[in-house]
Amino acid sequence: MTNVLLVDDHALFREGLSRLLAADSDIHVAAQCATVGEALELMSSQKFDLVLLDYELGDRRGNEVVLAAQERGFDGRILIVTVGLTRAEVRQMLNHGVNGIFLKNHPPEMLLEAIHKVVAGERWLDPKYLDPMADDSPSAFARRAKFTERDRQVLRGVFEGLANKELAERLHVSESAVKASLQQLFSKTGVRTRSQLVRVALEHYRRELLN
Question: What is the C-alpha radius of gyration for the chain, rounded to an integer number of angstroms?
Fold first, then answer.
């Protein structure tokens, strides 16, 4: 049984991932948390075989957890599960002992495959980072992105500066649904923050969003 610590600041994603992993008899989600501080506290008090770690944790980054784990001699495995990293960030994480990089836009079955390979001692590197000619800039992602009508509605709200609560009221959905839509947009456009999403919208979709 592999004891897993799940670290992600989006509760909806954490709950969904916990349910996915619960269906695997070889994996046990021993704990989950949302912040760097909580992760470090748990890693000091409990033993984990694997940490599934988001890179963006509010106003802090998962690399703090990676560096602290390295300093403390953590002997488990670490798999970064995120919407995207630059190639420089990937190199940095691998140099600091991370065992894999997995992007959230892939299907759940692929994540389970990545987990089992990492636990078995292999390294998992998202296929995107295996292509030296791939353009992983937000502009390149945006040029390839295909948006649903809900994507466009959320993009318009972000462009107008609406908070998640205001956007949820406009669309008559929950804040969790808005957050989930934002994560989809982050994945599709290759950005990690609302400000980057606004910039991409201004560069590529301003005319469309104002119609």
Answer: 18
Q: Domain 2-130: give its CATH superfamily.
A: Response regulator (3.40.50.2300)
Supply φ then ψ for residue 158, to 5 degrees.
-65, -45
Token pair 């704990």: residue: 31
**Dihedral sign computed on CA atoms, order 96, 60, 2, 125:** negative
* pLDDT tens-digit map of 85-143: 877 788 888 888 899 999 988 888 899 999 999 999 998 988 777 654 445 554 454 44
Question: Domain ranges in the chain?
Answer: 2-130, 138-206
Closest by CA position to 10, among listed 20, 22, 1, 18: 18
What is the helix (H) or strand (E) element at residue 106, kind and residue range?
A: none
131-171 residue pLDDT tens: 544 455 544 544 445 677 888 888 888 888 889 999 999 99
Q: Is 162 helix (H, G, I), strand (E, B) or coil?
A: coil
Q: How far is Cα 211 from Cα 208, in angstroms, rounded to an integer? A: 5
Residues 35 and 39: their CA atoms lie apart, in Å, by 6
Q: Strands of the chain (E only): list them.
A: 2-7, 27-33, 50-53, 56-57, 60-61, 77-82, 100-103, 124-125
In CATH, the number for domain 138-206 is: 1.10.10.10
How far is the first Cα of the chain from the last one, in angstroms, to the nearest whole number?
54
